[in-house]
Amino acid sequence: MPAIQEGHYQCPCCDFYTLVERASYQPCPVCYWEDDGQSLDELDRVSGTNHITLREGRRNFVNLGACDQAALSLVAPAEDLSGVRREVRATV
Length: 92
Fold this sequence. Notes:
This protein starts with 8 loop residues before the first strand and ends in a 28-residue tail after the last helix. It is mostly loops. It has one domain.
């Protein structure tokens, strides 16, 4: 699998810049959150696409390395993240 190309937009779940565009239902290769365009100020609203809240997805990424247990086999290995920018956003 080739290294991940940096995108223009941050994933709302893992905060890596992996998305080419927002709200395109593109799964993030780092955490496998499917970006449905949910606003970052709606951390506790269940995502219809991901079936969990963004807050849960973020917590899972920190604890598991993926937005949920089922996505663990789908995420890119850590060595593929070289050079991909991440800016961690605060969650309330």
